[in-house]
Every structure is written in structure tokens, then in C-alpha cells.
Amino acid sequence: MVGKKMKCIISPFNSCYLNIASEEYYMENFDEDVFYLYINAPSIIVGKYQNAYAEINRDYVEKNGIAVVRRNSGGGAVYHDFGNLNYGFITKGGGKGISEVFSEFTGPVLKVLRNLGADAVFSGRNDLTIDGKKFSGNAQYRKKGKALMHGTLLFSSDLGEVVKSLNVDPRKFEDKSVKSVKSRVTNILPCLPSPVTMDEFKKAIMDEVISGFPGAYRYDLTESDKKQIEALAESKYATWEWTYGSSPRFDYRRALKYDMGIIDIGFFVESGIVKEVRIYGDFFGEKDLDEVLSLLAGLPFEKSAFIKALSDISLSEYIFGLSNEAFTDCIFL
């Protein structure tokens, strides 16, 4: 990298949609290499090849206003909050392999942590660990001769929220998507002999990159940069089609016990759209259940869409004793 120019950016955004959009914007519009840091408000970032539905606790996520976005790199789902610092490098790469890119660009982070007194190491396929516990997961993707490598740094994140947000019952889904691998995790802050603030940690990493890579310099996004990133986030990354519609096809099933008995509900979903619905049980009804099935087929696999589609009927007329609310709550818990 000797002699290369490298823009070093601290993101002005804390929206996951804007920060993931920023990565595409940097890839497409900056000829120089890029290093960047950002912090997101509470959010979940799912890997490119994952089933977004199967990676998150949707009921908890929706009730707590946690944003969900799909990134362009592979790997597993991660939880972000204000205690999580994210970093990334974009380089023309020079034909370097995946392992070589990981090794080169995790180096500055490991050096900073060791200087702060933490015995941090690169471990396994793409993780950084302290005492065998993961504090950073890294991923990368390539496009038009460039490689992007990015990673999380759990500094003082709420690890309880990680569990609650990503805790999914695997029995609900049958699909071929890439599942997240659960690991023992730790925050960085408790592992340091002397505490530092997030701002001090962020500055130490930025200083290390600027001093360690000849040609690296601070760059502040222009108003034009920001407007283009905002437009990209709105048109792509903040849309249901990108985050959920890109999920692979899957089968989803639920068993619902209610006052009158038990029913089994199954869905076949493709590109986020319900293609087929089946409801089984020993229930009674005054009207033909096929009318309900036809209302649900073709919908986005979203609770709000189901509520709206069923708003003009009473499910108890089709499945005696079952309310609309109990039905939708069961499916999307």
C-alpha cells in the first residue's frame, strides 16, 4: 500500500441504512482507498446470503424499534448499538486473497488493543478474540476490482440485547440460507487494565491507521456526498424489498394452541412473498377456509400486511373461537 492515497472517514451518521449505503457509495465513487469508522443506533445487520426472518427475534425487534438491514458482504447477523464501533477498509487489493486481506486490515485494530493492554488475536476464519471470547466479527466482499473488509468491535455493547434480538427458534424454519454461528462474546472495555472512553478508542484506531498507512489522511464527507448517500439509503437499503425481499425461499411453520384446540400453520415464502399457506386442525367453521388462504397468498411476509388483509373479516367465522389478533400474534412471535 506504499504510496497509495487513503481517505479516512468518521461517519456523521448513526443510521444503519445510511452507514451501509455509505459503503456502497465509497466503493462506487472514490478511486482512492478508504478507511472508515461508524457507530449505529440499535440495529441488526444481516449477511447478504441470510434469511432475515430466521436470524432475528422479530417480535422483540419490532416492539423495541430496532432497525434491520441487509449488507453486501457474507457472514452472519450482528447486533449494533452505541457501544459497538464498526470499521472498514476498501482497497483495490492487488489480487490479494480473502485471508490476506483479513490479516492486513485487522492489524491496526489488534495493535491498538495490545497497546491498551488487551491480548487480542485473530482467530478462526474471521474473528478477533480476547481470551478465547469474540469481540469482533469480520466480513468482506469484492466488486469491480476492489475489496471491502469490515468488522464490528464490541466495546461496551449491551450483550443482553444481542441475545434478545438474535434469539430465534430454529424449529420454525426450513431453508438453505447461511445461519449465524453463535460464539462466546465479550466487550473490549472490561478486558482493558485501564478504562478508556469510546471517543478515545475511536481516536486511537484512527491515529494508528493514519500513521501506519502512507498516504492516509482525514476526509470529511461533503454535502454532496451526504445527499447521495441519503438517496441511496432511501431507495435501496431502507426498503423492505432489500432487507426481507432478498431472503431465500423458506418454509415457516407454527402450532397455535387456543381455547378450542390446536391448529398447525405452514407457509412457503419466496423472496419475502407468501406463495402458499396451509392450515390444519380439528376445528369447525361457518365459512370456507379457502377464502382466508386466498387473502394471505401473495402478501409480503409481514405482520402489518396480514393484519390489513384480514381486517375486513372475522377469523372466528372460519376457525371457531380464534380471533384475528391471536392468529397474527402466533405467526409473528
Describe this structure in words.
The protein is of the alpha+beta class. The chain has 2 domains: 6-243, Bira Bifunctional Protein, Domain 2 (BirA Bifunctional Protein, domain 2, 2-Layer Sandwich); 250-332, CO dehydrogenase flavoprotein, C-terminal domain (Enolase-like, domain 1, 2-Layer Sandwich). It contains 11 helices and 15 strands. The chain has helices at 16-29, 52-55, 58-63, 98-115, 159-166, 198-212, 223-237, 240-243, 290-296, 303-309, 324-332; strands spanning 6-10, 33-38, 43-46, 67-70, 78-80, 84-91, 120-123, 127-130, 133-143, 146-154, 173-175, 216-218, 250-258, 261-270, 273-281. It has an 8-stranded mixed β-sheet with strand order 7-8-9-10-6-2-1-12, with helices on both faces. A 4-stranded antiparallel β-sheet has the order 11-13-14-15, with helices on one face. Strand 1, helix 1 (16-29) and strand 2 (33-38) form a beta-alpha-beta unit. Helix 1 (16-29) crosses helix 7 (223-237) and helix 4 (98-115) crosses helix 6.
- Coarse structural class: alpha+beta
How many E strands? 15
Total of helices: 11
Order the strands across the largest sheet as they lie in space. 7-8-9-10-6-2-1-12
**CATH structural architecture of the largest domain:** 2-Layer Sandwich
**What is the CATH class of the largest domain?**
Alpha Beta
Rg calc: 23 Å
Low-confidence stretches: none
Overall mean pLDDT stands at 87
CATH topology of the largest domain: BirA Bifunctional Protein, domain 2
Strand content: 25-35%
- The number of domains is 2
Large-scale geometry: elongated
Assign the CATH superfamily of the largest domain: Bira Bifunctional Protein, Domain 2
**Helix and strand run:** EHEEHHEEEHEEEEHEHEHHEEEHHH
Ends apart, CA distance between termini: 49 Å
**What composes the largest sheet?**
8 strands, mixed
The amount of helix comes to 25-40%
